[in-house]
Specification:
193 residues; alpha+beta; 2 domains; 6-stranded antiparallel β-sheet; 4-stranded antiparallel β-sheet; 1 helix; 43% strand; globular; DUF2911
Length: 193
């Protein structure tokens, strides 16, 4: 009788262990799916940056790059005449370690939140704001703007799927920041002071 009871106990323990192993594998599988979904969300608007040194000025742009993904961007996803954080997720920021002149106005060396107000009929407004570390435009405050300039948008020859910033040297002490997305581009010429 003791042998039968022992065999039954071993059998029950064996079934219990197999059941726990099954549960372990399924929870691992669920975890893998969650990681995969997170990775997918991250790649929709990947975090990236652009840097250049022009006439000794180190200029750095940090942003998340959303994709068009068959959407109408300007006048659709992004309303005209409203402040946009010039990227996805956190506000785009621009840093320079030397003073710059943009449209005859001074942008002192520092780190700034970069915002854009796209317009259907007028030049776009480009904004440099002292509050560079913020989520989107949630905390945007016009009183913290240090510089506002205008830029005429131009049509791209082809679709720019992901928001892209470039910084290029145009002369010994001059350069151009270009932002392109969907079928629009804006250019921000600057001079290192």
């Amino acid at each position: 009788m003791k042998k039968i009871a022992l065999v039954i106990c071993i059998f029950l323990i064996s079934i219990s262990c197999k059941h726990e192993n099954k549960n372990d594998r399924s929870s691992d599988h669920e975890h893998e799916v969650k990681v995969s979904e997170t990775e997918t969300k991250k790649t929709l608007s990947p975090h990236t940056s652009e840097m250049a040194v022009i006439d000794g000025a180190h200029i750095h742009i940090d942003y998340s790059s959303p994709g068009v993904r068959n959407r109408m961007i300007f006048g659709g996803l992004l309303a005209y005449d409203e402040v946009w954080q010039a990227g996805a997720h956190r506000a785009t920021w621009i840093e320079t370690d030397k003073d710059l002149e943009i449209e005859g106005k001074l942008l002192e060396a520092g780190k700034y939140g970069f915002f854009v107000i796209p317009s259907q009929e007028n030049a776009w407004t480009l904004i440099f704001n002292t509050h560079w570390d913020q989520h989107g435009k949630d905390e945007y405050n016009k009183d913290q703007d240090v510089l506002r300039v205008k830029a005429e948008p131009s049509k791209n020859d082809s679709l720019t799927e992901h928001l892209t910033y470039t910084i290029e040297q145009t002369g010994d002490d001059t350069g151009m920041i270009r932002m392109s997305w969907e079928n629009q581009s804006i250019q921000i010429p600057f001079k290192v002071i």
